């Protein structure tokens, strides 16, 4: 324990050396929800801290709204240790206030799981991070789920958002009247708007992933922003420009969107060296530039001869003939280094490909009496389906109903574990799975029977099967008999299929 604490203090010391604002008397303050730190709440620690201090927050669940008005490093235990087994959750208790309100510059917040209620409430909008008129703040490696607004920067400049995951909300990352911020390596999925820039200038978006949103990246009356090396996947609109001017979009992968890029009332935006593979690649209702002086974009629906072998198709690619929107140098070949046909297939399960890590193809047998399997991978579910039905419960540590369901899961495993796999997913440690299964309320349970044409087949409570999970899932805490009934249907269906 002493060695571990010494390592943490060393890491914190190195972090403080790299910050812009430090003080000779800066100290490390610890927070523990069970009384193991200097303070039991994060806000208490903030109130008693001085500029330049570091607040180390132990794993646990913290129900509070936090106002940060000092130059601080606030870091979770899991961010330092690199372990995701014991996470630091912060759940706001006042819906009208952000979970983290930051109105001081030089603030770092790293490694927290911020949880909101169901999005779309009429009375108020729950906000994860709200930064007002600040500079040089850093938000990194945070997970935000079920917040109406994930991260909001208002009238803020020179801040860094890196490696955050925002899902199942209304707007993932919003910049309003904010300039010269850098957004990198963020994953923004299953929101209404993924990343939205309004009246914002000279921001850089690089290596972000915006997937399965209504709008992946939205540029509203914004100028001089650079978008490069972003993956924009399976949104209704990949990139939407509305009165956007003089932005640069280069080297982005725009795949499987309803419309790849839609520019309205927008002019002088430059787009080149992007890859477009969408139902409709581009709509340009303004006056924009679709190639540089030497190269254009790759369009999956444009082929032709390359007589001089310079990699440019001889025939121009017309986006809007009437408005004169033309790529004069369309590329023969794709630019990306990996040509994953499964990812790019409209009939393939692109989210499965996107989210699956390179785990072994085969997992060990998971069907065992009395065992509830904690799973993190779709591939593990698929392997278990080879043995029989899978009962899948999605929940979270902070959810009271989910905790109350644990004994039911244990009993189901004891009764059915030899014939079905009983699985549980912590959605805050596995937001990719929560996104894939479109979780809105928890606990969320369903029985998976198999895979058909790239889709899971589910058992309904009436004994019929469907590929529509909404019709089959059981939301909330129910009596054990409800879950037993679906499992009985699943096992009877399986027996009938084998005998049939």
Structure annotation, total helices: 10
Order of strands in the sheet with most strands: 1-2-5-8-11-14-17-20-23-26-29-32
- Residue stretches low in confidence (pLDDT < 50, at least 5 long) are 1-24, 118-123, 337-365
Report Rg: 25 Å
Helix content: 10-25%
Mean pLDDT: 85
Q: Which structural class do you get from the secondary structure elements? A: alpha/beta
Main sheet makeup: 12 strands, parallel
DSSP strand count: 42
What distance separates the N and C termini? 60 Å
What is this structure, in a nutshell?
It contains ten helices and 42 strands. It is of the alpha/beta class.
Could you characterize the architecture of this molecule?
There is one protein chain. With 500 residues, the chain is α/β, with parallel strands linked by helices. It is built from 10 helices and 42 strands. Among the domains are: 174 residues, no CATH class; 144 residues, Glutaredoxin (3-Layer(aba) Sandwich). It is 19% helix and 34% strand. The longest helix is centred in the C-terminal third of the chain and has 20 residues. The radius of gyration is 25 Å and the shape is flat. The N terminus is likely disordered.
């Amino acid at each position: 324990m002493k060695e571990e604490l010494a390592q943490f203090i060393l890491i914190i010391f190195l972090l403080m050396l790299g910050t812009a604002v430090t003080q000779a008397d800066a100290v490390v303050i610890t927070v523990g929800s069970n009384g193991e730190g200097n303070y039991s709440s994060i806000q208490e620690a903030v109130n008693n801290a001085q500029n330049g201090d570091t607040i180390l927050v132990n794993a646990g669940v913290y129900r509070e709204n936090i106002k940060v008005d000092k130059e601080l490093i606030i870091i979770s235990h899991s961010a330092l240790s690199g372990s995701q087994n014991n996470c630091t959750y912060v759940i706001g208790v006042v819906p009208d206030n952000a979970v983290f309100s930051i109105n001081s510059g030089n603030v770092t917040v790293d490694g927290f799981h911020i949880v909101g209620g169901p999005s779309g409430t009429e009375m108020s909008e729950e906000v994860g991070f709200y930064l007002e008129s600040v500079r040089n703040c850093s938000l990194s490696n945070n997970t935000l789920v079920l917040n109406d607004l994930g991260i909001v920067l208002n009238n803020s400049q020179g801040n860094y958002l890196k490696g955050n995951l925002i899902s199942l909300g209304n707007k993932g990352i919003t910049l309003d009247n904010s300039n010269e911020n850098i957004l990198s390596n963020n994953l923004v999925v299953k929101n209404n708007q993924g990343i939205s820039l309004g009246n914002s200038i000279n921001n850089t978006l690089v290596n972000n992933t915006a997937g399965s949103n209504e709008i992946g990246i939205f540029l509203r009356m914004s100028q001089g922003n650079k978008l490069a090396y972003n993956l924009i996947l399976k949104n209704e609109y990949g990139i939407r420009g509305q009165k956007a001017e003089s932005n640069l979009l280069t080297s982005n992968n725009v795949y499987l969107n309803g419309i790849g890029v839609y520019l309205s009332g927008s002019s002088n935006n430059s787009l080149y060296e992007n890859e477009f593979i969408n139902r409709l690649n581009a709509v340009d209702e303004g006056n924009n530039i679709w190639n540089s002086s030497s190269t254009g974009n790759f369009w999956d629906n444009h082929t032709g001869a390359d007589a001089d072998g310079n990699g440019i198709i001889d025939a121009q690619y017309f986006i809007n003939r009437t408005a004169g929107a033309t790529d004069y140098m369309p590329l023969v070949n794709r630019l990306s280094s990996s040509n994953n046909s499964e990812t790019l297939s409209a009939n393939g399960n692109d989210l499965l490909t996107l989210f699956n890590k390179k785990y072994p193809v085969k997992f060990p047998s998971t069907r065992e009496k009395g065992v509830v399997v904690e799973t993190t991978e779709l591939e593990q579910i698929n392997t278990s389906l080879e043995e029989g039905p899978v009962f899948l419960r999605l929940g979270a540590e902070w959810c009271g109903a989910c905790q109350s369901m644990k004994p039911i899961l244990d009993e189901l495993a004891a009764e059915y574990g030899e014939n079905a796999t009983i699985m549980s997913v912590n959605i805050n440690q596995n937001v990719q799975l929560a996104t894939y299964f479109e979780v809105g309320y928890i606990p969320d349970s369903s029985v998976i029977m198999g895979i058909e044409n790239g889709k899971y087949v589910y058992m309904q409570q009436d004994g019929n099967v469907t590929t529509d999970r909404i019709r089959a899932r059981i939301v909330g805490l129910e009596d054990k008999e409800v879950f037993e009934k679906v499992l009985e249907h699943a096992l009877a269906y399986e027996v009938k299929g084998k005998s049939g």
